[in-house]
Amino acid sequence: MLDQILNLVKQYGQQSVVDNPDVPNEYNNQVMAEAASTITNGFQNMASGGGLQSILSLFTGGQNQSNGGGILSNSIVSMMIGHLANRLVSNMNLSPATANSIANNIIPSVINSMVSKTASSDPGDSGFNLNSLIGSLTGGGNSAAAGGFDFQGLLSQVTGGQDTGGGVNIGDIISQVTQSAQQHQQSQQSGGLANLISGFFK
User: Fold this and answer.
1) Fewest CB atoms within 10 Å of the CB: 15, 56, 57, 129?
2) Range of the domain at 154
């Protein structure tokens, strides 16, 4: 899922960053790497802080967010926008207006695309699924986290309006995901993820 996020950042960054005369060309890759880090770390922090339900609600609400309005009002997205804008001002000396414009363009666009592609049944979007996302946040790779729970199946149930019952204890699942995400986050403190992202935007 990380590769898909990086590719989306590159896709949406073309207009809001590369073609933006207010961004010096030598900062293009740094700005996009910062955006990718903001998104991946944002989800990572939510998962390790017990915010699995917030992540799930962002994706299961995707059917109602096609116009982007719902995305912008989501607390995860607004937090990422603010974080990215601050980083661009402090690290790259971009003006607050430019930084806010970039953050308000690139973050909602990438997240909205992730949400719609994750809910899509198009084979071309098969790389986007909740099992892969949550697996990447918990170190489980493409396998479903939390003891093999099928998050993508849950998404299909919710977006299809079906009952999501069946004896699932969401509290236990949140606890398992939180614990796994915390362990995975600690194992990445050496900068592995940051190196991977910066290497992609070169």
Assistant:
1) 15
2) 2-200
